[in-house]
Amino acid sequence: MSDVTPDQPPALPVTFRPGRTRTVLLTAGTALFLVITLIALLLEQLGPGERISFVFTAALLAGVLFLLARPKVVADEAGVTVVNIVSRRRLEWAEILRVNLRPGDPWVFLDLSDGTSMPALGIQPGIAKQRAIADARALRALAEARSTAGPGTPRN
């Protein structure tokens, strides 16, 4: 994503995701699967059932890492799709009252019109803090520009 000023939201559609974290998780998951599978094939004393259990365990561990790499936030003209580890939720722009990324937060939280708060793991300051801050500002600018309340309305 390119640099965006707070007054100028990015062009839609736009996808926010923790790129470096995702790369690390996908690489680690693939390497883990390959190494454990290779070990299962090279150990001659293992029987067929034991080899299968090694590969199955490798697939499970890699699957967990792939799930952790899944989060993203996709904004388009109609609203926002928040994809977290095991869930996906579609939100209309009017449902998003505020986009929060406070110091110490592990990811962005969306304050919703139904009174709840929803985590958006697709924007997280883990490895790339400045990128997460810029992405949170861009999503906030989009939400304010497309909200029925408008950017001048106070947000609690």
TrEMBL record:
Keywords for this protein: Membrane, Transmembrane, Transmembrane helix
Record-linked Pfam families: bPH_6
Sequence intervals crossing the membrane: 24-46, 52-69
Domain Low molecular weight protein antigen 6 PH: 70-140
The protein's name in its UniProt record: PH domain-containing protein
Organism per entry: Streptomyces griseoloalbus
Organism lineage: Bacteria, Bacillati, Actinomycetota, Actinomycetes, Kitasatosporales
